[in-house]
Amino acid sequence: MLLLHPLLAFLLVILCISCKGGQHELYFINKSEDVIYVGFNFTKEFAEADIIYDRRGGQTKIEKGDTCIYTAWPSTWESRFKRGPYMHFHVFPRNTYDYDSDEEASANKLMHYQFTQEDLEKMNWTIVYKP
């Protein structure tokens, strides 16, 4: 009887999960002339553009002209939409931890995007920020 080492078995499971269909990468392109900081979250209900961004979610620094690749691996972005039908991207001029509160950070947002899974599929999972 062939016994698999637990680590090998785990790697095979991960490989099988990653081979399933679905989108694993999402691209955010910064076409501005400035460094930006981008955070995202999911919500179950439609939210207004002035939604308060929870800074505990962190954010990604994207240099001018660069592309950030967000990966959902080993899952897919489609499965992440089970958290809520709306995915929000919040664009800030500086690190949100430089602000005193979530409310202050949100008040200084450069842009707020809200997408459904269908929106992102139509956009080929690519978001372009160009003020």
Give Rg in angstroms.
17 Å
Give the strand line-up of the largest sheet.
3-2-5-6
Low-confidence stretches: 11-19
Strand content: 25-35%
Q: Which percent range fits the helix content?
A: 10-25%
The computed structural class is: alpha+beta
Number of helices: 4
Order of helices and strands: HEEEEHEHEHE
Number of strands: 7
Ends distance: 63 Å
Name the overall outline: globular
Which features does this protein show?
131 residues, alpha+beta, 4-stranded antiparallel β-sheet, 3-stranded mixed β-sheet, 4 helices, globular
Summarize the entry for a quick read.
This protein has 131 residues and is of the alpha+beta class.
What's the structural blueprint in terms of helices and strands?
Blueprint (H helix, E strand, L loop, with lengths): L5 H14 L5 E6 L5 E8 L16 E3 L4 E5 L5 H4 L5 E7 L9 H6 L3 E5 L1 H6 L3 E4 L2
Description:
The chain has helices at 6-19, 77-80, 102-107, 117-122, and strands at 25-30, 36-43, 60-62, 67-71, 86-92, 111-115, 126-129. With 131 residues, it is α+β, with helices and mostly antiparallel strands. It has one domain. The strands form two sheets. The chain has a four-stranded antiparallel beta sheet. It has a three-stranded mixed beta sheet with strand order 4-1-7, with no helix packed on it. The radius of gyration is 17 Å and the shape is globular. It starts with 5 loop residues before the first helix and ends with a strand.
